[in-house]
Structure formats: C-alpha cells, structure tokens
Amino acid sequence: MSEEKTLDISTQGSLDQAFKQGVRVIIPKDRQLQIDIDSDDDYSRFTQAYDALKQHYLNVPLYYKTSPSRNGGEGRHITVEMTEELAQIERIALQAILGSDWRRELFSLIRVRKGEPLPTLFFEKE
What we know:
Elements: H1 3-6, H2 11-21, E1 23-26, E2 32-37, H3 40-56, E3 61-68, E4 76-82, H4 88-97, H5 102-113, E5 122-125
Antiparallel strand pairs: 1-5, 2-4, 3-4
Helix pairs in contact: 4-5
C-alpha cells in the first residue's frame, strides 16, 4: 500500500502529525503565499516565476522572505507577501505556479475541496 493511501492529509491529521514531530505550524495570513522548495533547481524556477508574476499579475507580490526547510539540504520555505487578500484556491494555484512541492499543493487542494478550515500550512522546527 502506498504512503499516500495511508496518510491522513486532513487539516486535523496534519496538525496531529506536526504535534508528534514537535514542529511549529505556520498558518498563512490573508495576503501570504507559502512556497515549499525542495532543491536549488526548484528555487531557480521560483525566481523566474516570481519575476513573471511581479510583471504580469494584478495582485502583485510585494516581497518574499526565505528560511531553511525543516528537512534541511537544499530545501527552503518562502513566504510571499501579496498586495491583496487571497482566496484559498488562488493561493494554492499561485504556490504551484511558483514551484511549491506538488504533493503539498495537491493535498491543500484536496483540503479545500473537502471544506477543511486550514488547507495550507508550513511545518517548521521550533
């Protein structure tokens, strides 16, 4: 049986898992995107997409900040501050466009479809 079939991806399941792992849960504010980058190649794609978004998208990104991901290595978490509030579905689409981990965005999309209260979360070390 694959990991995806046994993994509880609900909001509560994710919060329970974060508690077990002893990590901090970061919930995005209304104007924030949370991008989960796994490699330097993904980060390069992020910067290209960010520049295009800044040039062409109406809800312009103001700035972003980067921190190491809890898994270490080349991974990093990026929080993008936008000029306007975001609908959940818009947040997920923009995160995917900016190169965020596809599994994370798929699980977030499933949570939105199921009416989960917190579809997008970051887990970071204390």
